[in-house]
Amino acid sequence: MSRDHTPNRMSRFRPQVSNPWESDSRAVTAIRNCLILAEQMGLRTMPKENEQSCAEHLANLPSTKLIEVQKEVSSKTETLYQLQRNIAAHVHDKEAGDFLQVKNIEYRINMITELCSDLDKVMQNTEALVHRLRKPFVGSFIKIDARYHK
Hints:
By secondary structure, the chain is mainly alpha-helical. The protein is about 65% helix and about 0% strand.
């Protein structure tokens, strides 16, 4: 048996909680159980000096690097998506800008006001217009002979 074997003492891997039935995270439960069994069997655990070197080795694993690259790609994809949304908003503003600019709106309002005033004058002078239209045209006109009509 190893000198680190402590079957009667509390395991350092067991959670120190007041409720022993409280469930741990399912992701670490299996690993925790393996460590407890290894400790009960008398296997040595990793010394503190090796934990740091193990962490350095884990940081250099290809899978860890792949996860970091995926995080970078995800963040850049999100940034790209935000930029595309901003570009689409600017394009939309450019398309609708001529309708929403104050100068163009004022110009259209003035044009409609003039048109309304002209139509009001026509409505007020309707009788005079009808009377003039019913009169025959008398004045200078172009003489056209019948021989030119074909």
